[in-house]
Amino acid sequence: MRMKRFSALLLLAALTACTSAPEQRLTVPRAPVETKQRIAFGSVALREVSLPGYAAGEEIYFSDATGVLSTQPGLFWADDPGRAITLELSRHLAQITGARVAAEPWPFGGFPEAQVEVRVEEMLAQADGVFRLAGQYFVSSENGRARAQLFDLSVPVPDEAGITAIAAARGQAVRDLAVTIARDGLR
Question: What sequence ranges are listed for the domain ABC-type transport auxiliary lipoprotein component (predicted)?
Fold first, then answer.
């Protein structure tokens, strides 16, 4: 009996795969940077951003009102999220601070004056119409200055704007995180 059920599930999965939605890749538009912040360091290395399992893959997850996560078949991020967010943060931090900022491995001679590590706890669009980015970041330096701060950022996602609004909200949340790190962690 179990084998028949399992075979039926496999057949259903195969049929679903044959009729699945066409694959679509969603890019994240660049959020404009208007903030400038002086910091205490001339060079900053950014370690690869650590993401929760559901956010580290290509699939785009949504949270319903009960907190259950689901995806839309055939909808994927255009780039590996860990890589993309690390590069976005690096670009934003360089634009905001004017410092030499690069993702690790450090591509320049010598050593950076500070290192930033970001560990994301939550990164998803929620049923209440916001994109949430929450976690903790750490700043360390050779001169002994070290900081650890929690962050919890929300960006509205208008219902009428569609799926591209989620990508835009993610870009804005990452930009806002860069502003927060520059203002509170690197000064």
Answer: 26-182
pLDDT digits (tens, 9 = 90+) for 125-143: 998 999 999 999 999 998 8
CATH code assigned to 31-185:
3.40.50.10610
Written in H, E and C, the secondary structure of 16-28 is: HHHCCCCCEEECC
- Domain boundaries in the chain? 31-185
Q: Which two tokens stand for residue 19?
A: 């009729």
Q: What is the residue whose two structure tokens read 């907190």?
A: 67
Please give the helix or strand (H or E) that residue 169 lies within, else none.
Answer: helix 163-180
How far, in Å, CA of 177 to CA of 175, rounded? Answer: 5
Q: Six-digit token pair at 47?
A: 């370690």
Conformational region of residue 115, where left means phi above 0, alpha means psi within -120 to 50, and beta covers everything else: beta
pLDDT digits (tens, 9 = 90+) for 99-109: 999 999 999 99
Beta strand 24-26 pairing with 69-77: parallel
Alpha helices in 30-142 (DSSP H): 53-56, 81-97
Give, as one character, the DSSP assignment of residue 67.
S
